[in-house]
Every structure is written in C-alpha cells, then in structure tokens.
Design goal:
Elements: E1 12-14, E2 19-20, E3 34-35, E4 37-41, E5 47-58, H1 64-69, H2 71-82, E6 87-92, H3 102-106, E7 116-117, E8 135-139, E9 147-153, E10 168-172
Length: about 180
C-alpha cells in the first residue's frame, strides 16, 4: 500500500511530510492512516491562515465498519499532535455494497452532524461491473467557509492499469 497526495503547488503548501498513525496499542487498522498537514495559500501565494490535516485511510474490506469507527481515535490523536481541528478524512473506506450497509454507515461516529460527507452513497468510485461508493471524502468542518461542496469522480484518469478505483476530488475556495 502507498498513499499519495496530488495538489497544486502555489495553492497548497505542505507543512510536513506527514506521519503514520501509531496504531500499535489498539491495533485497529490493518493499514495505518497517513496524516499530512497542509496550508491553503491565497491568490498571491501567501498563507490564508487555513491549515488542515488529511487523514488518508484504506480500510480492510471485511473490517471496514470497525476501522471507520476507529477513525475517531485517529482524529483525536491528530488534533493533539498538530493542534489542528480542521481535518479531512479521505481514501478507500470500502464504505458501500457488501462491506458496509447504509444502517452501519449512519451509525458511525464520523456520520454525526459535525461531519460533512462530500462523496455521497450513490457515487460510483470503482472500475468494472460493481457500482459502489468505496472512496470517500469526509470533512470535520466547513474549513472556515471555504469548503465549496464541489466534488467529483475523475473518470478520465484511471483506465484500470493503476487501481480498481477512480480518483475522487473536492474543491476548497481560495480568497
């Protein structure tokens, strides 16, 4: 497994190389989440004062619900480590079809009113015959009003040679 972040230089500035969540005590994840810290830049390339962490996760399909439930611990750890409350969880949640039912998803900690799910249940983020919304983006806030709500699945990028999933994206408003 490898985690990657594609972002526009001059729009976002990485504040570190990220860190893997230390899951040795609870052993809640087969693949530990990777958490980098970014800041949003204005049109002149200066800091807007908005910084946030990304929590990249790839759940084990058969443990998807349990691993998504454990994300609350990751968010608490990340907030203490970075001193940052604006967090965006993204990646392959396996949050659909046979791995997670609607009832299981709505009962997750990250399904409370505090969180904004950008990629909805009816999205198809996979390649092939299935029609599942495995890949998700969930924000812990509206990023100081900069979360536009625009999101999408990039159908042009992945022809199946890299992954059986398509890239998902979202917009943040620059001032």
């Amino acid at each position: 497994e490898q985690y990657a972040y594609y972002y526009k230089i001059g729009v976002f500035n990485p504040l570190d190389n990220g860190t893997l969540y230390n899951d040795s005590a609870a052993d809640s994840f087969q693949r530990e989440p990777h958490i980098p810290h970014f800041e949003l830049l204005d049109l002149e390339g200066n800091s807007t004062g908005l910084d946030f962490t990304l929590v990249n996760i790839h759940t084990k399909p058969t443990l998807a619900v349990e691993e998504m439930n454990a994300l609350g611990d990751v968010l608490n750890w990340s907030e203490n480590y970075y001193g940052e409350t604006d967090q965006i969880i993204l990646g392959d949640f396996n949050a659909d079809c046979s791995y997670a039912s609607y009832d299981e998803l709505i009962n997750l900690t990250i399904s409370s009113e505090e969180f904004i799910w950008l990629v909805p249940d009816n999205a198809d983020t996979t390649i092939g015959g299935s029609r599942c919304a495995y890949d998700r983006i969930v924000a812990s806030s509206n990023l100081d009003g900069r979360l536009s709500g625009n999101w999408g699945v990039d159908f042009a990028v992945n022809d199946g040679n890299v992954s059986d999933h398509r890239p998902v994206w979202f917009d943040i408003i620059r001032i």
